[in-house]
Amino acid sequence: MTEIATRAERHSVGAYRDRFELLQKENFFPAADWMRQQRQAAISRFVELGFPTTRWEQWRHTNVAPLVATEFAQPMESQVALDAIAPLLLDGHPYLVFVGGSLSQELSSNDDLPSGVTLTGLEGAFDLAPGLLEEHLGRYALWDDQPFAALNTAFWTDIAVIHVAPNVILDRPIRVIHWATADGRPVMTSPRTLIIAETGSRVVVLEQFVNLEEGSSWFNAVTEIVAGPNAVVECVQVRQGGPGTFQTTFTAVHQAADSRVRLHSLTTGGRLTRVDISANLAEPGAELILGGLYLVRGREHVDHHTRIDHVAPHCTSRENYKGILDDEGQSVFNGLVVVHPDAQQTDAMQSNRNLMLSDNALVHTNPQLEIYANDVRCTHGSTVGQLEEEALFYLRTRGLAVPEAQRLLIDGFAEEVLALVNNPALRDSLERTVQAWITARELARD
Amino acid sequence: MNIRELNNNHSLNQDKNIRMLEIKDLHVSVEGQEILKGINLSVGAGELHALMGPNGSGKSTLAQVLAGRDIYQVTAGEVLFEGRDLLALTPEVRARKGLFLSFQYPVVISGVNNIYLLQAALNARRKERGEEALDAVDFLALVRNRLQAVQMDESFLYRPVNEGFSGGEKKRNEILQMLILEPILAILDETDSGLDIDALKIVAEGINNFRTPQRSFLVITHYQRLLGYVEPDWVHVISEGRIVKTGGPELAHELEERGYGWLQGGQPDVTIKAAIGP
Q1: Residues of B in contact with A395 (CB under 8 A)
Q2: Of A257, A267, B140, B264, which has the highest C-beta tally within 10 A?
Q3: Backbone phi, then psi, for A78, in 5-degree steps?
Q4: Are the beta carbons of B181 and A398 separated by less than 8 Å?
Q5: pLDDT given for residue A444 in this prediction
Q6: What is the pLDDT of residues B91-127, one digit of tens each?
Q7: What is the pLDDT of residues B231-266, one digit of tens each?
Q8: Contact state of A397 with B95 under an 8 Å Cβ cutoff
Q9: What was the ipTM of the complex prediction?
Q10: Integer Cα distance of A100 and A75 in angstroms
Q11: Would you kindly state where each structural domain of chain A is located, as residue ranges?
Q12: Nearest-angstrom CA–CA distance, B156 and A408
């Protein structure tokens, strides 16, 4: 990154560095030695990298200047009424609620768990096996060329930890809700999540980033998912930002032999959203399903950059991302599948399809394959299209009014990705979220 | 208001002067090219009319215009549906008032289950008639009954509309929709094309059992074969955007013998004759 940063960027980077040093001096951050070292290295790297600009290859179509120009404060301790959070909860499901990046124990419900399942904030995580946290935290979400992940690593104050012991099965979805605080000024929240599924275990997690406030706020999140041998993990990440929300999230997946991971992403709001996913199929027999749905309207901008590394042989990956864009919405999809030299018998499929509901929406899509092995099966493709006039007419000749016919077609387009969600409770919940978006869109048009 | 409308419908049907469908001097263009050049056609309640003609004669255009496809421009003429201006209605209102088009090429709707569309369509039609939406039990009973009539497996209900259906399955699915929606005017656009003989018999039986003194049909076909199973009251031959001949059922047989060529002043069309099945 040799280019000269603008004054605003330099100033902004310096401001984060200064704040970090101040907070570090005041012992604001949780302080194990290894954590302190990680933070220190991360803030140094962030200062070197600076904020990305559109001159960076991976950021060509996403301009974070408005984010850089905004002065974000550290979250203050604040109260959120249970009433506000209640609609997000499913009955009988364990959940953690983080407000402004810190666990709110009084809002959370994590005592009704089978033995072998730990769901906790940082404080409780020290009760886990010695060294477990150090072994995993920050070992997968590599921030060397990821300034936002580096910034999160420097600034997180609490952490959601989900640990499932060997051969323990939990099919009730665990919810982790990250709630942005609203104290009348822009706030940077740094949610951090670590999911560890040990050998032969199974777990379902819903991670939700919620900011329903009008004001500007920024979620800068990192999630690490570790699937041990033969473990099964399903994780859904839902981003429901308001019109002033910035969302930058980095999710790293590490898969041991014969593990199966499904990672779904649903984005239904936010001024600027950047989703980075990096998955490492490290041992033979691992299987990864990446599903994504982004619903973009107004002047929202959603960018997905995914990278799947097939390192070991006999691994399978399926990636299916779909976008629905209205108004002046913009989306970027950049999906990279790298098949390493030893990864023979790789089976990789990647697809990105986009539905444009408006002539003013804009889509950049760029699926990429890099293949260094010779005995593999890889396909990729992308499409950008509109609602088919013929399909619309067909439905109208069956008595459906235009909005109803459109809704059916939009629904049908989204259905393929929703069908990838294995857990029925989660699938229902996502379907409702999609329905709500379609309804909001219809109301905005009336 | 709905009750009154029902009564009106009733009295309209009683009135012999008001026809189910009346097409008067209809001219239709697409992208500046005239395709229909003055169609006149009148269908009475309970009548089954067959419209035959070679490819490119305007048969399907007429079907699409009647259903409300807006890529066609009506440049002159009018169409009355039970005495009302059909062309002023949107496609969905036409459908709710009882006009049904069986598509020549039924459209695939990915991600939307067949049963969902059937329910939405039926409820739209019932609402127009001032009827309550059917509850799930009654709806399923109705659908199962109609499935039997077209010999379709119940699993079709839970598949996306027409996705992965064979040609014959798509056509049967159209007839299934017709039997559930109970239109008063059914336009069947080459519903017999691409059907094997067994599927053709099923479709024909579906139509025959569905005929009532109030319900009218416009059966558009390229081949005479279907008319061996479904007896038309009238047969019209369309050529180059005009109806060039009208007759009784015997006209269909004549076409089978002689092809379409003689109607255009040429020789009997051997290729068309050869294409007519047993």
Answers
A1: 109, 117
A2: A267
A3: -150, 165
A4: yes
A5: 86
A6: 999 999 999 999 999 999 999 999 999 999 999 999 9
A7: 999 999 999 999 999 999 888 888 878 777 766 654
A8: yes
A9: 0.89
A10: 5
A11: 7-283, 388-446
A12: 18
